Each structure stands twice: as structure tokens, then as C-alpha cells.
Amino acid sequence: MFKFSGELSAGLPKVARRFVAEMVFGIQARGSVRLTEVGRALGERISLKKTEERLSRQLGRRGLEREIQRRLIEQAAPRIEGKSHRYLMADSIPEEERNSRNSRISLLCT
Asked: What is the value of pTM for the model shown?
């Protein structure tokens, strides 16, 4: 887990590296991407609300989402390269907007 988060966050500022490590840990520990659940997994001594606010601020860091997606794709591509009919798709539409956008989005499956 630490190796994975380290590869995802290599070269990022220290605070962003910590954020990536905490998110990877929290997602794995709680099985959820919700910030409240990740915060619970972290078990910090500060209030859960403050932990969630901190994670939310980091999540909004300019350019972080695109950089993490790029690195995830770089890591995954060699594992699927050369295999016919396999695609890697990264969805950056927030969950709460997906249902309202479904009528405008076409998904291609193979």
C-alpha cells in the first residue's frame, strides 16, 4: 500500500503525498471513497468534521486529480497492453452528478 501510494505521489509536494497516502489507506480500510469514511479509517484525534474538511481541501488541489489519473493510467497500461478488447477508462464525473448526466452520456462497452 505504501509503495503504491508512493508511486502515485512521487514528485508531488509533501502535503499532497500525505493526502494520497491517507486516501489510499482510508479507501482500502473502509471500502469507500467517501471522505467521512476515509476520515473514520484515519482515526485522528481531531474531530471527524475537521478531518473531512482537510481531506476536501486537498481533494480540491489544482491539478492533483489529473496528475493522479495520469499516473494510474501509466501504471495500469502495461498490464492491459496487447490484450485485445480491453479498455481503461477514468471517470472524473462526481458521483452526485452522474445520474443527472446519464441522459447526455453514452457509455461504450466491449
From this structure: 0.68
